[in-house]
């Protein structure tokens, strides 16, 4: 048995994942994580997107060990360092150049929410406007500004900025709505005093809301609308980015080029904290001191991030990723057929198995059975009624298929 008594005695009792997955883990490699009891689990939770390249990638681990053994700089605040230069060069070579992109990089505090704060603040400064359009169900983080654009009233609580207009997403549990048509009306409103927003902030896949991928068409229409009205488009790729959808960023297939992109979680590549904002041409209106913070960038994450970005030029990695996306899509199509599953949605390496609004208990039960079958999964959606599947994107395909099969069997048993 895992001994969780210390946690219960000394730690605050607000940890949702831990309540759902009451185990103690000690070692992990690739897609596998081992409990103190010696049992191995497939980690299809993957740090909610912070472990897209799995645990302890040997190349990253060895680079870290070598760097530390050579007394590499571990913290330099904003000073120029060799690893930071190498990271910037790698971003340019591996991400920007192949896509023809022209972005500046803003290092923010280490969490995704910090990057969202910076993007909102920059959009307001660049446009001189204050309103932000966000979407029902959106998740952007827990700091005051990021929380103010998070589309979940119970999470938000009182006292936050109300300069936010929430609009339904393309497809969500809140029903279908012509959000682009609504935005068009807002822009043309001369009489009632609606103001144009500084920015629209959008996730290419609303993951915490329950895994709702936006269509290319919808993202394109959003890009068109924002461009037509001088409104900035911020894509929050903190969870959908870094390979989760099968592309580096979830919006890439739409051809949309956002003005600002927020990126965190797997950008560091090893579960190491780092968050950045990519700033489109002409929008870097920061003055020195405008957006500061002690932990901007992370020397160790610069090192592992370069290796992670390098995978995007590695044919073998790209082949594995394509095979894995196909395996996920096949499996998820099968889950949709299980009697009792309300629907199952998939985009690349992210899937949501929806048990229906009033079936939270079933989703919980299924999650426990999946755990017994040796697979860690998280839940999402308004009430936790959707199981979220997020395996590391480079899981060996055979291992992925084994986990997906075990998952399907456990779900069928829970509903049978
Ligand atoms: N945006 C999105 C889309 C996210 O999924 C998250 C984290 N789940 C955040 C922002 C906030 O990131 P962090 O928890 O690192 O602050």
UniProtKB/TrEMBL annotation:
SUPFAM superfamilies: PLP-dependent transferases. InterPro entries: Aminotrans_3, Aminotrans_3_PPA_site, Dat, PyrdxlP-dep_Trfase, PyrdxlP-dep_Trfase_major, PyrdxlP-dep_Trfase_small. Keywords: Aminotransferase, Pyridoxal phosphate, Transferase. One of its GO terms (molecular function) is transaminase activity. It holds the Pfam family Aminotran_3. Its cofactor is pyridoxal 5'-phosphate. The keyword Transferase applies. PANTHER family: DIAMINOBUTYRATE--2-OXOGLUTARATE AMINOTRANSFERASE, DIAMINOBUTYRATE--2-OXOGLUTARATE TRANSAMINASE. Belongs to the class-III pyridoxal-phosphate-dependent aminotransferase family. This is Diaminobutyrate--2-oxoglutarate transaminase. It comes from Diploscapter pachys. The lineage of its organism: Eukaryota, Metazoa, Ecdysozoa, Nematoda, Chromadorea.
